Amino acid sequence: MKYTLILLSALVLFGSCEQEFKKKVTDKKDYDKFLDTEPIQTTSKNFELWNSKIRQDSMQLTSFGVVAGEYHRYFEGSGDIAYLKMAEQALKRAVDIAAIGRSGYYRALARNYISQHRFKEALEWANAARAIGSGKKGSQNLLFDVHMELGNYTKAQKYLDSTKNMSDFDYLIRLAKWNDHKGDLDTTIKLMEKATKIAENSKNESLLLWSYTNLGDYYGHAGRINDSYRHYLKALGLDAKNGYAKKGIAWIVFSHEKNPIEALRIMNAVTKTHKTPDYYLLKSEIAAYMNNDTERLFNLDMYYKLVDDARYGSMYNMYNISLLLDDTRLYTKALELSRKEVNNRSTPEAYSYLAYSYFKNGNIKDAKKIVDEHIAGQTFEPGILLQIAQIYKASGEKSKVQEIKKELQGAVYELGPSSKEIIRIL
C-alpha cells in the first residue's frame, strides 16, 4: 500500500514536471543578449545634415520629408511622444510648401495622425491625397487603414477590394487584417505567412521586422506559442533594440509559462530604453499577479506621469478608461471618456468600453442595448467578449454567457493568467 502511494506520488510528480516541461518555450540564452542594449540613437550625421537645411523660411522640401521620417523612426524606437510631434511639424511644413508630390506628403501626414489616434483628421488628409490622383494605390491602402480605425468597415472593404492582388505585400497584410476582424484567424495567419515570404524575398528589413512581430502576435492568438516565440526572436535578430518583440517574449514568459519574475526582468530591461506608456501597464499587471503592491503602484504611477503629457492626446484613451473602471473605480469619469472615444472612432472596442462604463455605473439596460446594437457579432476580441459576458450575466442572459464562456476558456493566454478565475465564475 505504501509502495503504491509512493508510486502514485511519483507519477503525479512526473506528470506535473512533464506538463511544466511542455509549457516551457523560452530560453534565457536566446534573448538575454538582446536585453542589455543602449537607447536608440536619436541623431546621426545624415540627420544633422538634413536638419541643418531647415530654417524658418526654408523651402527645402526634401529636407522636411527626410527629417520627418527620421523623427518617426526615433519615436518608434524610443516611445518618446516628442519625436512623433516633431515629425508632424516637419510634415505640415512640407505640405505647406509642396508644389509637386503633394499626395505623398498628405499620406505621410495622415499616417502620422493615425499614430496619434487623430483618425478624423487622418481621413481628411487621406481623402485629399486621393483627390490629387497621384499614388492612387497608396491612397487606397491608406483609406482602408483609416476606415478600419474609424469602424467604417463597409468603406474599408470597398478600398480593400479595389487593390486586390494576391502577389502584393500591401494587399496581403490588409486582407489578413480584414480576416482577423471577421474572426478567421487561420486565414489571417496563412495570408501573413504569404506576405512574410514576399518580405523575405525582397530582403527589406523594415518589412521583415513588421512581418515577424505581427506573425508573432497572430501565432500567439492561435495558441502556437513556439512559433510566436521564434518570430519574436527573428525580429530581434534584425533589430536588437526592438521593444515590441521583447514585450512579446515577456508576455509568453508571463502568461504561458507563469514566470512573472522573469517576465518582469525582461520588461525592466525594455523600459530602460523605451518610454512607451503601456509597457509600464504590463509591468503593473505582472506585479499584481505577484501580489507585489509596491511594484504595481510604482509602475502605475510611471504610466500616469507619462500619459499626463497633453501631447499624447487620445492615444491612451482605451487604457485610461480601463484603469478608471478596474483600478481607480471612477466610473462616472470613465463614462465621460468612453463617450469621447466613441465620438473619436465608432469601433466595437470603443463601444465595448462605453457599454462597460454604463455597466459599472449600474445602468445595465443601456449597457445591454449598446452590446446588442454595436458589439455583438461584430468582434471576436477576447477582452471585449469578457466585458460582454459580464453584461449578459447581469441581464440574466445565461445561455449567451455560456456560449461566450466556451470561447473565453481558450483565450486565457491572450487575456493573461489572472483572467482564469474571472472566466470561471461567469
UniProtKB/TrEMBL annotation:
Keyword check for Glycoprotein: no
Family annotation (InterPro entries): TPR-like_helical_dom_sf, TPR_rpt
UniProtKB keywords: TPR repeat
SUPFAM superfamilies to which the protein is assigned, alphabetical: TPR-like
TPR repeat locations: 209-242
Top-level taxonomic group: Bacteria
Protein name from the UniProt record: Uncharacterized protein
Organism: Costertonia aggregata
Taxonomic lineage: Bacteria, Pseudomonadati, Bacteroidota, Flavobacteriia, Flavobacteriales
